[in-house]
Amino acid sequence: MSFESLGLSSPVLQAVSEKGYTTPTPIQEKAIPIVLMGRDVLGCAQTGTGKTASFVLPMIDILAQGRAKARMPRSLILEPTRELAAQVAENFDMYGKYNKLNMALLIGGVSFDDQERALERGVDVLIATPGRLLDHFERGKVLLNDVKVLVIDEADRMLDMGFIPDVERIVSLLPPLRQTLFFSATMPPEIKRLADRFLSNPREVTVSPPASAGTNIVQGLAIVAEEDKREALRRLIKEQDIKNAIVFCNRKRDVAILQGSLKKHGFNAGALHGDMSQPARMETLEKFKQGEIQILVASDVAARGLDIVDMSHVFNFDVPFSPEDYVHRIGRTGRAGKTGHSFTLASPDEGALVEAIEKLIGNAIPRVEVSGLETAAFEASDGRRRGRGRGRGRPTGSGGERSRSPRRAPREERKPSGELPVEQQAEAPVAREAQPKRPQRERRAERDQHREPPHREPAHRESLHREPRAERTGRGHERRPERRRERDEGAPMGLGDHVPAFLARPSR
Ligand code: AMP
Q1: Is 421 left (phi over 0), alpha (psi -120 to 50) or beta?
Q2: Where are the alpha helices (DSSP H) in 240-393?
Q3: Average pLDDT per 10 consecutive residues for the chain, totaling 508 residues
Q4: CB-based burial, 141-170: b 16+ in 10 Å, e otherwise
């Protein structure tokens, strides 16, 4: 099948061919003709499948006719993270180069002013994270009743990050007569129910996750003492033939510390996490994409969905709390048919997290040894519970990194890596049913780490009659200033806290 047979216009085909793509991916083959027909789509696909172009290309053609009015976008794409939103915007720039579509990107962490100016000019394509879009709406800067096409991307991620109430509110502000394209990597019942409410007689399109189709991620897992992790990482990096790599940490505060440590040891490392300003995040990402930074230490939210062509390695410095994040993390490598490598460093108390991942992917992750370091073993008891506390993600002082001997592994676990099949591991489809239900505490910890703060009331109203959302939960630990700062990372800049009341009034 060729792109020409999908019904796309010549300007779009020209842009696709200049990008060098000759054959549509399965999601593009299935979804593009349906979108061009004006039908709603329920797409079960994750990043890496070519999903973005499957809605961007036909949208360019749909929006080619017509003109946007000031503050009234003609289409809306909702993304869970700033980076994904920026990536979709890049796609519009790339594929829409022969069309004259106006686009605006509304994401947190950057000034409201430029975004408002773009809205004023009239936009054909509005790409937004839910919180920032609602902030603009409440300031009366955007009206949503002219939206003809809505895309909800990564719906399951929106759910995980607590954005669904914001998404529901946004959808309630849209005209009921519209075309809706709804994408999610998984379809748990909550997401299906949402899709049933938002979509009208949709066509369902399902494609397998990229890595389940026998692509090529060579996985390995090394069990080492917590205090050996940095040493283990350095040794693995030196042993591997690394073109470029992401090192994932579970907590953003560990990201900066690990990056500093790697730099101190002479590695070319950058950092990407939610406490950085948006311009700094974009700059780092660009340097990584250009090869100026070889190793990017990152938190999940910052690296979610990043499309770095040809990335050779992924390292998990911590075992992710959510098994799905493991699939997403390692999916950053082994893209577009290339062989990728992923190594996970697990401490003895991370056994339950590893177990949950292996249950989800349907395979044991091959155990590997780090040469020169002693292999430890998982603790027999409930590692999940203890994994939240002692030592997880705790930076180890460089002076005392080897101060405590790891527990020796039982003999059967101390096999040299060569005896284990460190080779292609197919990822199972990401079936949420297969996962153990995560304790709420754990989901909350993950959300605190990941989320750009959901929609915030303008500052003056918050202070007058309500507490910020997470503080209203009444959970004592939520009140720690450090957590508050983490949530505030997307707080409005520009007008900041001094929003005049008349601007903050809803425009309805
Ligand atoms: P996505 O799933 O949208 O994140 O896309 C994953 C990667 O596949 C991106 O690098 C795209 O540029 C690339 N891609 C998209 N469509 C095609 C295609 N038809 N052929 C080859 N690569 C593609």
Answers
A1: beta
A2: 252-264, 278-290, 300-303, 323-330, 351-361, 383-387
A3: 94 96 93 97 87 97 93 97 92 95 93 94 97 96 97 92 94 97 90 95 83 65 96 95 93 92 96 85 89 93 69 94 84 75 95 91 90 88 41 33 33 30 27 36 41 37 28 30 30 34 42
A4: bbbbebbbbbbbbbbbbbbbbbbbebbeeb
Q: List all residues 6 or more positions away from 365 whose beta carbon is below 8 Å from its beta carbon.
A: 219, 220, 221, 344, 354, 357, 358, 425
Which pLDDT does position 469 carry in this prediction?
A: 33
Q: How far apart are CA 299 and CA 108, in angstroms?
A: 17
Cβ atoms of residues 301 and 452 within 8 Å = yes
Token output for 316: 């998990």
**Pocket lining for ligand 1, CB < 6 angstroms:** 21, 23-25, 28, 47-53, 307, 309, 336
Residue 103, H or E segment? strand 103-106
- The label of the residue with tokens 């099948």 reads 1
H or E segment at 269? strand 269-272
* Separation of CA 49 and ligand 1 centre (Å): 6
Query: How many Å apart are CA 386 and CA 352, to the nearest integer?
Result: 10
Closest CA to 240 of 320, 375, 339: 339
pLDDT of residue 415: 32
Contact 271, 256 (CB under 8 A): yes
Per DSSP, the three-state class of 249 is coil
The pLDDT value given to residue 147 = 98
- Bridge partners, 219 (sequence order): 342
The per-residue pLDDT for 97 is 95
The helix or strand, by DSSP H or E, that contains position 171, with its residue range, turns out to be helix 164-172
| Minimal-distance CA residue to ligand 1 atom 1 | 50
Q: How many CB atoms lie within 10 A of CB 31?
A: 29
Residue 229 in 3-state DSSP?
helix
Per-residue confidence (pLDDT) for residue 209, from 0 to 100: 61
User: d(Cα 183, Cα 54) in Å, to the nearest integer?
Assistant: 11
Query: What is the per-residue pLDDT for 503?
Result: 41
Cα–Cα dist 149/422, whole Å: 46
Domains and CATH numbers, the chain: 3-206 (3.40.50.300), 217-400 (3.40.50.300)
Residue 106 pairs with which residues in a beta bridge?
128
Q: Amino acid identity, residue 460? A: H
Q: Nearest Cα to 426, choosing from 367, 361, 366, 368?
A: 361
What is the reported pLDDT for 302? 66
What per-residue confidence (pLDDT) applies to 211?
42
Residue 274 CA, ligand 1 centroid: distance in Å: 26
CA of 3 to the centre of ligand 1 (A): 13
The amino acid sitting at 96 is G
The Å distance, Cα 183 to ligand 1 centre, comes to 16
Alpha carbon distance, N-terminus to C-terminus of the chain:
48
